[in-house]
Write a structure and sequence with these properties.
alpha/beta; Pyruvate-ferredoxin Oxidoreductase, domain 3
Length: 569
């Protein structure tokens, strides 16, 4: 979509080493100084099917996936058939020699397989990298890091195959190659949304993480498990999602900052425990990585369809917080905020992400941890002899919290004989069950007073574009990048556009939102669901009706072309 942007799609079947090509290729690009936006499309199977690893590359900042393909790497006939119509007339097709390209009019090349078929994906990697001009040093470094821990002979064989692929390109005519412009952006990391959530949790002081594997949330657990021993926290794979969240609630009550991660179907099993966290006023962070439903739906595709579900999950009324990061950087910072606010508000905090953001690699600046606050999980009593009132009625609604058996603060810790009592029934201030209806009323009011504490820390929506735009795009979560690039594109065309993005979708403070909505002549909601869930939520909370919407619900992420085409329609 821009003269400085190149879109490469690597496609084949599961089991061909597709992810290896994609991850090493993109890591080499980041090392060489490029911006990237990765989109992964894969089917729910171990072998076969048609998967794709798409990477948009530029020497300038980019945020959105695109559809038009500049370079197609097809490893199977099906990959060629699925993606060939998206290849531009100026694009190039690089295909396995077994694929029939006889009718292809666009520039194309059939890649001969190396003698050792085990390394054919690395050979293809070498061909692709040379075609777009990735320097050899960055590529070899990325490949060596990818195979760290393997036998030196195996690493060397992969490096040899890589070089063979690079040399093979030298015999091709120049019109086949698509070299990128030079880039100078150095010292950046390649991580995806799930990895950033894991890093954010570790930096916030995570001590306990429990889960039951469910795409697309599982890689959060994988990342955390790989660092648990070194960082000093515990990762537990439970027998099911019910056990996972109840373990985390128990760990949090004992004083360990805790998190669980799942997707819609797994979260459905957690809803009773969400209500338990609300009643017991237990801090917990829950990541819900959205995918298309109902039921199993499309387990490896993307959607923003669970906003209303998570907002209303758990029986009864109690305050909660819903975040929806829009970028990899926000995944890190918002996860930290989630832990801090869960501790401040003594209740559940949710992070809504989705398959697109979870699996989308980006090049990001290293996170500066030094100025970030640390998490202090327990209050200090004025006197160790003061009786503990687990649910003491306070002006803010937040009661002092002590880990059972331990009084702990950021500067000291000492043992305590005070009894910490909690009850999932309605309870008195000291934590014992009650059916006193006057106490019930006081406790409901107490719990809801915590909403004022939450609202003190609400993230205001991000505005970008013309101050008084003719058209305002309203979006949330992972649609940030595509909305911002759409606005930049339209402004560059001389049109008046703006964007209002929400990375916190509950609670909504009307006065933070209405001025933007009222200034625009036309407001368009942009979401990845069928019913425009966030637009409906905004109307409920502000009274402003967004009648025009751009919605996508086919399991694919919003792209620049998709939004631009529907604005013009």
């Amino acid at each position: 979509m821009t003269s400085d942007s190149l879109h490469v799609v690597i496609s084949g079947e599961a089991g061909q080493g597709l992810a290896t090509i994609g991850q090493v290729f993109t890591k080499a690009l980041v090392k060489a100084g490029y911006y990237i936006v990765v989109t992964q499309s894969y089917q729910s199977r171990i072998r076969g099917g048609c998967n794709a690893y798409s990477v948009r590359i530029s020497s300038q900042p980019i945020e959105s996936p695109v559809e038009a393909v500049d370079v197609l790497v097809a490893l199977t006939d099906e990959a060629y058939r699925v993606h060939r119509d998206a290849v531009l007339e100026s694009g190039v097709i690089m295909a396995d020699e077994k694929i029939d390209l006889s009718g292809e009019k666009r520039p194309h090349v059939s890649v001969a397989r190396p003698q050792d078929a085990r390394f054919f994906n690395i050979f293809f990697l070498g061909v692709l990298a040379r075609m777009v001009g990735v320097d050899s040093a960055s590529l070899r470094e990325a490949l060596t890091e990818f195979f760290v821990g393997h036998h030196p002979d195996a690493v060397q064989k992969n490096l040899n195959s890589l070089e063979q692929g690079r040399q093979w390109v030298s015999s091709l005519p120049d019109h086949i190659q698509r070299p990128l412009p030079n880039a100078t952006r150095k010292g950046f990391y390649m991580i995806n949304g799930n990895e950033a959530i894991a890093i954010g949790a570790m930096s916030a002081g995570l001590k306990f993480f429990s889960f039951y594997p469910m795409t697309p949330a599982t890689s959060i657990a994988n990342t955390l498990a790989s660092h648990a021993a070194k960082m000093g926290f515990h990762v537990e794979q439970a027998e099911d999602e019910i056990a996972a969240i109840n373990m985390a609630i128990g760990a949090s009550f004992a004083g360990a900052p805790s998190m669980v991660a799942t997707s819609g179907g797994g979260f459905a099993l957690m809803t009773e425990a969400v209500s338990l966290a609300g009643m017991t006023e237990t801090s917990i962070v829950v990541v819900v990585a959205q995918r298309p439903g109902p039921s199993t739906g499309l387990p490896t595709r993307t959607e923003q369809g669970d906003l209303e579900f998570v907002l209303h999950a758990g029986h009864g009324e109690f305050p909660r917080v819903l975040y929806a990061p829009g970028s990899v950087e926000e995944c890190f910072h918002i996860t930290r905020e989630a832990f801090l606010l869960a501790d401040k508000s003594r209740g559940p905090v949710f992070i809504l992400t989705d398959q697109f953001l979870a699996d989308s690699y980006r090049s990001v600046e290293p996170f500066d941890l030094e100025p970030l606050p640390s998490l202090n999980v327990c209050d200090e009593l004025a006197s160790s002899e003061k009786p503990l009132q687990t649910y003491e009625i306070t002006v803010s609604g937040v009661s002092p919290r002590l880990a059972p058996g331990l009084v702990q603060s950021c500067v000291r810790a000492w043992s305590s004989e005070q009894l910490a009592v909690a009850d999932s029934d309605e309870h008195t201030e000291d934590g014992h069950l009650t059916e006193d209806l006057h106490v019930r009323k006081l406790m409901v009011q107490k719990r809801w007073r915590k909403l004022s504490v939450i609202k003190e820390h609400v993230r205001k929506p991000l505005f970008y574009g013309d101050k008084d735009p003719e058209v305002l795009l309203v979006c949330w979560g992972s649609s940030l990048g595509v909305a911002r690039e759409t606005v930049a594109w339209k402004i560059n065309q001389g049109q008046s556009f703006g964007m209002l993005h929400f990375s916190q979708v509950w609670p909504i403070v009307a006065e933070d939102v209405l001025p933007y909505l009222k200034r625009a002549k036309k407001v368009i909601g942009v979401e990845s669901n069928f019913t425009g869930q966030f637009s409906r939520l905004l109307r409920r909370e502000t009274g402003f009706h967004i009648s025009e919407r751009i919605l996508r619900y086919d399991g694919l992420p919003l792209t620049l072309e998709y939004v631009l085409d529907r604005i013009s329609a």
